[in-house]
Amino acid sequence: MHVETLVIGAGPAGLTTAYELTKAGRSVAVVERDPIYVGGISRTVTYKGYRFDIGGHRFFSKSAEVEAWWTEIMGDEMLQRPRSSRIYYNGKLFDYPLRAMDALTKLGPVEAVRCVLSYAWAKMRPYRNVVSFEQWVVNNFGRRLFEIFFKTYTEKVWGMKCSEISADWAAQRIKGLNLYQAIIQSFGLGRKPEGGGEIIKTLINSFRYPRLGPGQMWERARDKIVAQGGKMMMGSTITDLSQHAATGQWVAIVTDATGRETKVTADHLVSTAAINELVRMLGADGEPDMQQATSGLRYRDFLIVGLIMRGKESFDDNWIYIHDPNVKVGRIQNFKSWSPDMVPDPDTACYGMEYFCNAGDDTWAMSDADLIARAKAEIGKLGLARAEDIIDGAVVRQPKAYPVYDDTYKVHVDTITEGLEARFRNLHLAGRNGMHKYNNQDHAMMTGMLTARNIIAGSIAYDVWTVNEDAEYHEGGNAGTDRIEDRLVPRRVA
Ligand SMILES: Cc1cc2nc3c(=O)[nH]c(=O)nc-3n(C[C@H](O)[C@H](O)[C@H](O)COP(=O)(O)OP(=O)(O)OC[C@H]3O[C@@H](n4cnc5c(N)ncnc54)[C@H](O)[C@@H]3O)c2cc1C
């Protein structure tokens, strides 16, 4: 089979590329490892008619182009949904974003006094040389509030102690927020946030969501790609990949689950597979620097336990952050609140118990039955459901859910991209793990859109590395740099 473009991966980045190319009349084949689902991390898994995301997936973008694309694919099946999420601590649900009066009232007078005293203490005796996230938060909020609202959840998500996380992350993320200001503002006093307040409020208070979950978006995109002449090769991987030195033509052996091999030749290769996997697929990891770079890139993995419960759910929030150190669950999704059609029987509910982990650790290694039993026990312990009302469950594991930004990742990514650029032509990297960028769907899609434009134009008119986390393309980079800063994530203390 010959196509103009061979795409690896049917996630948002790969499918956006394929959709744009087939819409322009270009020939495309998409190779996807999963035998059933398209959408990658943004897929919707179905279990006995219950639908759940790999973590809830909100659709919002500052890019009008991406928003318009979603409407083009989904039409009126794209819902506008209210957002509500709270923090669980010590048997109580606290407003999120935190409101000082709500927090202090729910903590009770004794704890409230302790928080205020520990805040006063931190102001009198602050850490002088602030290097860690813990020190930064304690200085700004006091130790009690740090322990209640920051420590547990941060450590669950990132698998690092707050004392090991560098302070700049907190400074950038929680900038402008301090307890004093929060208390003043909760009384309706103080200065209002400058400009754009309404827009920010709207983004926070609602989001778009396909009626049947994010997977519906990507299933529709797949169907349109096929209708436009594209080829989907599901349950398949590339078992041999090379580029003809003289012609530049790509030659791939695509092998499906039955072992059947198809030889595909292509003028362009678009990869949304993890970049270290791509390097290995291309056999380009022979050089010591490439070997070091590919083995040096790290990921955080994730699993979700879908629990089906008889009866009415005890909260209406889309999700709840679990700041309780006595359970391992990090966040709980309530899928009926995302869209009522995610749950086939209105007399039942479907929760998603999210566990942040590393492939191969104790949580990851547990059997599905044990994970369901743990999730059931934990939701019971938290008092958010009665364990005996949970009637069924399913586990979905997501390796490489988060590309990790550690001290060396940037050097590794640069080594890999430079090495690949020097050896291969017409190779396009796109998407989250495809570019090792910890960003949302809209960013992954924008890199796919620009890649399609480059292929159609026959030249690299757009540099996908200059797409920022808001999915905005910046001609010539941001303020003179050619690679845009990514989403803020914690780094280790140097
Ligand atoms: C818990 C969680 C919550 C999130 N919430 C949101 C949210 O609210 N809003 C939002 O916009 N984004 C959210 N995201 C981010 C979003 O999931 C990703 O940005 C998006 O899915 C990235 O798309 P992608 O196509 O780049 O990669 P992926 O989604 O990873 O898709 C890559 C695809 O390629 C396939 N593949 C990989 N390697 C190979 C190979 N060698 N051969 C064949 N196929 C291969 C994979 O099977 C997969 O289908 C969230 C992510 C997580 C982990």
What do you see in this structure?
The chain is an alpha/beta fold and 494 residues long. The protein folds into 3 domains: 2-39 and 213-297 and 407-466, FAD/NAD(P)-binding domain (3-Layer(bba) Sandwich); 98-196, no CATH class; 299-403, Protoporphyrinogen oxidase, mitochondrial, domain 2 (Polyamine Oxidase, Chain A, domain 2), CATH 3.90.660. The chain has 17 helices and 18 strands. The chain has helices at residues 12-23, 64-74, 100-124, 133-141, 143-158, 167-173, 179-186, 197-205, 214-227, 275-281, 288-296, 335-338, 362-365, 368-382, 409-423, 432-435, 441-457; strands at residues 2-8, 28-31, 44-47, 50-53, 78-82, 85-89, 92-95, 206-210, 231-233, 236-243, 250-256, 261-271, 299-310, 319-322, 331-334, 348-357, 390-403, 427-429. Strands 1, 2, 9, 10, 11, 12 and 18 form a 7-stranded mixed sheet that branches. Helix 1 runs parallel beside helix 17. The longest helix is centred in the N-terminal third of the chain and has 25 residues, at 100-124. It starts with a strand and ends in a 37-residue tail after the last helix. Flavin-adenine dinucleotide binds at residues 8-14, 31-34, 40-42, 54-58, 237, 272-273, 277, 302, 401-402, 431-434, 439-442, 444. The site of flavin-adenine dinucleotide has 35 residues, from helix 1, strand 17, helix 16 and helix 17.
